[in-house]
Write a structure and sequence with these properties.
By secondary structure, the chain is of the alpha/beta class. 48% of the residues are buried. The model has no long low-confidence stretch (mean pLDDT 94). The structure holds guanosine-5'-diphosphate (GDP).
Length: 430
């Protein structure tokens, strides 16, 4: 049964969305199964301005594809309603014909956002996107959460949401405390948004499995990436969902036997948003800024959700190897080959780490251990030419081909698609 999965192999923002958007026409369904409004996927179809998607799968730009927000996604109803409306204003058709939401997806409630804000304003700040994800995920696992299906009981949902918000509000400092009237209004706006989403709600597990039984091709779009995985990432600098292929299967209700292909997206420049160890980080801010590009450009290195400048570094095969080990990867898609010359005359690739005096080739799944690792690099001569117009592999400068072939040899996985610009078709197929 043809279920093709695309996941991120680094720390997010690899460019998963652009590949989902590119290959989506070969599928009838594109499904998201993890993360929530904390995710950000940018797609850049030729005929329109680039679009940043957060909760809606990246197949939405193609009118005939069904987009599923699966049971593993944390749904923020206000942000989702805004996302739907902004897509419609951009001329993209969004209706119950091409978007459905799982009745089992957990709802981000007003108090989750307040709890996130409280923590981010405190000494325990984690640098979250303030989307309430850690708190909605917490409620899911303590079995105190509310799912999309609760929308059918609006009175009870309203009363509970207000009670929880009043409780959390009492923890804010006096100047940030809201009045009871303000809290009621907040919950009413939220409830209205949940009601807007009612027509989209379905048992998506049943739907997706019916489609698989019909022999349809389904594309699973992973959000965030391996190193942000709650179990296998660099805990505690992780997200609150499972970002592996297994996580996506659980977040969509699909059997592992249905997986036909796993593609992992990696970016030629490693990036990270927020705190935590970064073994190959470029600490010279001038070089980092040169690689990052100007704020506001489609492909500059600023968070699609938070707009924070991303920390940048050299390509790190030690981390990617670990991501491959746990995901069972068939092929790699590489992005931002066009930005490699921004490193200067030479660039480096980390092939091993030294940890406690020993050489290791698989990065440890622990922030504590990662912070003790030092990289071993291979250095390469860069190229100067602009490669963004190139569509044939053989036409790339020989240094760029050496870069690609070195990665393939080290990782033992073929690189099948290479991004040379942010636009949908700026891709070299191999
Ligand atoms: P995602 O969350 O993995 O989908 O990645 P994001 O959309 O957050 O970030 C990837 C960014 O890189 C987006 O701004 C893309 O437009 C841009 N991008 C993707 N592939 C390429 C590429 O090959 N070259 C360039 N220059 N930009 C790219």
């Amino acid at each position: 049964m043809p279920f093709h999965v695309i996941v991120g192999g680094q720390r997010g923002d690899e460019g998963k969305g652009r590949f989902v958007d590119l290959i989506a026409p070969d599928y009838t369904v594109v499904a998201r199964g993890n993360g929530g409004a904390n995710a950000g996927h940018t797609v850049a179809p030729e005929s329109m301005n680039p679009i940043a998607l957060h909760q809606i799968p990246s197949g939405i730009v193609h009118p005939h594809i069904l987009n599923i927000i699966g049971n593993g996604v944390f749904v923020d109803p206000i942000k989702l309603t805004n996302e739907i409306n902004s897509l419609i204003s951009a001329g993209i058709d969004v209706s119950t014909k091409n978007l459905v939401i799982s009745s089992s997806a957990h709802l981000v409630m007003p108090h989750h956002l307040s709890l996130d804000l409280l923590r981010e304003n405190s000494q325990n700040a984690q640098g979250s996107t303030k989307s309430g994800i850690a708190f909605v995920a917490g409620d899911k696992y303590t079995r105190e959460g509310y799912r999309m299906e609760s929308v059918y009981f609006p009175k009870e949902l309203y009363a509970k949401a207000l009670e929880l918000l009043i409780d959390v509000n009492s923890n804010f400092q006096t100047d940030l405390k809201r009045t009871e009237q303000e809290l009621e209004n907040e919950v009413k706006v939220w409830l209205k948004a949940t009601e807007n989403l009612k027509p989209y709600i379905q048992d998506t597990v049943d739907l997706i499995n019916q489609r698989l039984l019909n022999g349809e091709n389904i594309l699973g779009e992973g959000a965030q990436a391996f190193w942000l995985d709650i179990s296998h990432g660099m805990y505690p600098y992780v997200t609150s969902s499972s970002t592996t292929v297994t996580g996506l299967l659980d977040g969509l209700g699909i059997s592992p036997k249905s997986v036909s292909k796993v593609s992992m997206v990696i970016k030629a420049i490693k990036s990270h948003v927020g705190g935590g160890p970064f073994v190959t980080e470029i600490t010279d801010e001038q070089i980092a800024q040169n690689i990052r590009g100007e704020f506001g450009q489609t492909d500059s290195e600023y968070g699609a959700t938070t707009k924070r400048p991303r920390r940048l570094g050299y390509l790190d095969l030690v981390e990617i190897r670990k991501a491959i080990q746990l995901n069972g990867v068939d092929e790699l898609y590489l992005t931002k080959l066009d930005h490699v010359p921004r490193f200067g005359d030479t660039f480096k690739i980390a092939t091993e780490y030294i940890l406690d005096g020993k050489n290791i080739v698989y990065a440890p799944s622990s922030a504590n251990l990662l912070s003790k690792c030092t990289p071993i690099y291979r250095e390469f001569t860069s190229w100067k030419e602009d490669i963004s117009h190139i569509r044939k592999y053989s036409e790339l400068p020989h240094q760029a081909r050496e870069f690609i072939e070195f990665i393939e040899k080290e990782l033992g996985i073929p690189i099948k698609k290479i991004g040379v610009g942010p636009e949908r078709n700026s891709v070299i197929e191999r």
